[in-house]
Amino acid sequence: MTRPIFLKNVPIDERRISHIERVVTRLTRRSVKKMVSLITPYPISCATFGEDIRGPVLCYMFPCEGTITKCLIDVGTKPKDKTIVNVSLRNKVYDDIKSYVITKSNFLVDLKTDVCSGDKLTVSIVPNEERVTEFWVSFLWVPKIKEVEAKSYLIDELEEGIPEVE
């Protein structure tokens, strides 16, 4: 059985006061409200439909430094023959082309490729015997932290902006 902190008709001594301060300190640490803010990557995507899709299907120029994290390619139906997709990243200094052979209807690639301001991304389909009639491509791009706008909010301001769920 626990001993009561305050006994009746007994003066409070230093040992009890230090015990109370320690308990209050531990409780205040637990009562701190924490909020987590998520910064999502920017999607870059394109869908193309036609009788026979060939050549460039997506062109994009990056406005600032960052990293391309993932790429998802979807050709609608599973190709009978191998379909080749080129992903080109170029600027004034270099031209980097990566080729991917698509054997399934969709294909996910972890790129982890750094880009600079002014880099140009081009996705193109290399012609083959089989016709591609539907083509989807999507990239996730995360700008460098120096390019992201940081905003500070008080906890009360954040709570005011969150609608209550009933």
What would your notes on this structure say?
This protein is mainly beta. The protein has a domain of 104 residues: Jelly Rolls (Sandwich), CATH 2.60.120. It is 14% helix and 40% strand. It has a four-stranded antiparallel beta sheet with strand order 1-8-3-6, with no helix packed on it. Strands 2-7-4-5 form a four-stranded antiparallel beta sheet, with no helix packed on it. The longest helix has 17 residues. The two termini are 42 Å apart.
Topology:
Blueprint: H1 14-30, E1 42-49, E2 55-61, E3 66-74, E4 83-90, E5 95-102, E6 106-115, E7 120-126, E8 134-143, H2 155-161
Antiparallel strand pairs: 1-8, 2-7, 3-6, 3-8, 4-5, 4-7
Tally of strands: 8
Q: What's the CATH H-level homologous superfamily of the domain at 42-145?
A: Galactose-binding domain-like
Order of helices and strands: HEEEEEEEEH
Number of helices: 2
According to CATH, what is the topology of the domain at 42-145? Answer: Jelly Rolls
Query: Strand percentage, roughly?
Result: 35-45%
* Morphology call: elongated
- Helix proportion range: 10-25%
The CATH top-level class label of the domain at 42-145: Mainly Beta
Output mean pLDDT: 82
Largest sheet: 4 strands, antiparallel
| N→C terminal distance | 42 Å
In short:
The protein has 166 residues and is mainly beta.
Keywords:
single chain, 166 residues, mainly beta, Jelly Rolls, four-stranded antiparallel β-sheet, elongated
